[in-house]
Amino acid sequence: MSPSRIASRILRVKPSPSSAAADRAAALRRAGKKIVNLVVGEPDFDTPRHIREAACAAIERGETRYTQNAGTPALRQAIADKLSRENALRYDPKQIVVTCGAKHAIFNALSVTVEPGDEVLIPAPYWVSYPDMVIACEGTPVVLPCAESNDFKLDAATLRAALTPRSRWLLLNSPTNPTGATYTREDLRALADVLLDFPDVLVLTDDIYEHISYTDGPLVHLGAVEPALLPRLVIVNGVSKTYAMTGWRIGYAAGPEDIIGAMETLQSQSTSNACSVSQAAALAALEGDQTFVREAVLTYRSRRDRAVERINATPGLSCRAPGGAFYLFVNCQGAIDRTTAGGRFLANDTDVVMYLLEEKGVAVIAGAAYGTPGYFRMSIATSIDVIEEGIRLMGEAFSDLR
Ligand code: PMP
């Protein structure tokens, strides 16, 4: 097909680098190569039984038809209850829309608000989809680099310096994919103080890793830290990561009625409701027993502790202990500008990642994909044996760099 048939805004959108890395690893595996896959961006657990059973029961009850475009009243109420219980935020169910995953919620929120050329501020390292979603909506992504020395968090001065009259959104993701950076009450207070000076800027918090947290006590929400931001705050969350439900495709957004209403209208003319059966499952996830979540986090935490220790004992590599999510963002600058024992020159993180994949069969994702070269992301959402083997092979790969 001639590229000219495709709309220019879509031609500018790149395919997701994480899907590309997963595809490359799968292709090598099909070709018979043993691959240690540290690319995965989803829990390695099955969806808990009580959630699966709730879905089966919904099917048997005949809940297999269209629901309201914005989601079933029961699920929207459960989300409102969750926001009140866990985040100290009061939302009416009509301020909530259920979407086909958190990704869909973010895309729709941007779609209904971004005018051509509007700037969307994105702290880097960022989740790979943010800039391309903005581009698909004809906005301009403005990347704000965040230093490793500040735990990869956005600071108030960087935010203030980036805000312009064209700024439409700030996208804030905590805990962050790919770094696990987790904003404290003080961090949020400082950002809120800047935002109060720019009343036209909307703020989207992507809370999808909220429960995958290794910090003590519950996470504080920006909206609870500064309630004056609520009229321009859109909260995005979902059940994918917390309840090992990535394939069920249930996310949601909560926010001011005009934005949520516009998202609902867009959804009514595009996807309609999220899957009815998945909505019943999500209801059971939010309202049911939470033991699974606690156990999963303990498992991730022990993997994190072990993996961080082993990475920091590997020459050429280092990483900080992430405060949440299930990734390590590994500094590989010690391996860059060096030559491997086999005579391969590693000019950047992409070379490092290709070397690890092609020579050692270890699949990770280059930091460049997250707007931050010099690093790579490795997942800990896989068994400790796979993680240990991957790091052992990394050690082998970098043992005699020249
Ligand atoms: N936000 C972030 C930061 C993510 O990492 C992901 C999943 N990779 C999503 C949103 C999308 O989640 P969902 O499966 O609910 O669409």
Distance between termini? 47 Å
The top-level CATH class of the largest domain is Alpha Beta
User: What is the averaged pLDDT score?
Assistant: 95
Strand content: 5-15%
Number of helices: 14
Give the beta-strand count.
14
CATH topology of the largest domain: Aspartate Aminotransferase, domain 2
Structural class: alpha/beta
The parts where pLDDT drops under 50 for at least 5 residues are none
Largest sheet: 7 strands, mixed
Q: What hetero molecules are in the model?
A: 4'-deoxy-4'-aminopyridoxal-5'-phosphate
DSSP helix fraction: 25-40%
Family: Belongs to the class-I pyridoxal-phosphate-dependent aminotransferase family.
Domain Aminotransferase class I/classII large: 34-389
Protein name: Aminotransferase
GO molecular function, one term: L-aspartate:2-oxoglutarate aminotransferase activity
Q: What report would you give on this structure?
A:
The relative contact order is 0.16. The chain has a seven-stranded mixed β-sheet with strand order 2-8-7-6-5-3-4, sandwiched between helices. The protein folds into two domains: 3-46 and 292-398, Alpha-Beta Complex (Aspartate Aminotransferase, domain 1), CATH 3.90.1150; 50-287, Type I PLP-dependent aspartate aminotransferase-like (Major domain) (Aspartate Aminotransferase, domain 2). It has helices spanning 8-11, 17-30, 49-60, 73-87, 102-111, 129-136, 156-162, 185-196, 222-225, 257-268, 276-287, 291-312, 349-360, 384-398, and strands spanning 36-37, 96-99, 119-124, 140-145, 167-173, 202-206, 233-238, 251-254, 327-331, 338-339, 345-346, 362-363, 365-366, 375-379. Strand 3, helix 6 and strand 4 form a beta-alpha-beta unit. With 402 residues, the chain is of the alpha/beta class. Helix 3 packs across helix 11 (276-287) and helix 5 (102-111) runs parallel beside helix 6 (129-136). It has 14 helices and 14 strands. 4'-deoxy-4'-aminopyridoxal-5'-phosphate is lined by residues 41, 101-103, 127, 173, 177, 206, 208, 238, 240, 246, 251. Pfam families: Aminotran_1_2. Residues 34-389 form the Aminotransferase class I/classII large domain. InterPro entries: Aminotransferase_I/II_large, AspAT/PAT-like, NHTrfase_class1_PyrdxlP-BS, PyrdxlP-dep_Trfase, PyrdxlP-dep_Trfase_major, PyrdxlP-dep_Trfase_small. One of its GO terms (molecular function) is L-aspartate:2-oxoglutarate aminotransferase activity. It comes from Robbsia betulipollinis.
